[in-house]
Amino acid sequence: MTPAEELKHEHQVILMVLAAGRRKAEEAAQTKRADKVFFEKTIDFIRNFADRCHHAKEEKQLFAKMVERGFSLENGPLAVMLHDHEQGRAWVRAAADALPAAAAGDAQAVERFTRSLLSYITLLEAHIAKEDNILYPMADRVFTAADQSDLAAAFARVEKEETGEGVHEKYHQIAHELAGA
Fold first, then answer.
1. CB-based contacts of 88: which residues, under 8 Å, 6+ apart?
2. Mean pLDDT of 54-79
3. Fold of 3-180
4. Residue closest to 127 by CA, chosen among 25, 44, 42, 58
5. Rounded to an integer, what distance in angstroms lies between the CA atom of residue 84 and that of residue 174?
6. Is 181's pLDDT higher than 80?
7. What local confidence, expressed as pLDDT, does residue 20 receive?
8. Given a cut of 80, is residue 115 above it in pLDDT?
9. Are 102 and 112 in contact (CB under 8 A)?
10. Does the pLDDT at position 138 exceed 90?
């Protein structure tokens, strides 16, 4: 599996959680009550799998390799991806901040929570489409076989040293649990 294929596979897992999150957020908007346990797990998944694991591979490894091959971090596709990551983090912070009151039934907090979470989900769905269909193919066109090998090794290091042993598998299990909720 190439590094881009690995990232695309992770996208499928993330999209599964986003779909479940959208469904439950729309339900919360209707009932004016947020499922605390479900959304705490969703936010944990987003922060630790989508951001800490997946985005770390992109930002620290893939994007860095693309810069080595002539891409700019200040403008162009990498700048757009980094901006999306930062905007996504802001939406997740806003959702997490509103969740306790939303779970307690505060109607205004439910509105803030669902607006923030749905904004994040919409942003990330579009972001994933841009990466899968534009960014990764661009990277694959400029990467050498050695680049691909270096990235695969770097991704494995992220999984082992930064994410932690067994954490990736744990979040895959949580994704399936959330998708079935």
1. 51, 120, 123, 124, 127
2. 94
3. Four Helix Bundle (Hemerythrin (Met), subunit A) (1.20.120)
4. 58
5. 24
6. no
7. 97
8. yes
9. yes
10. yes
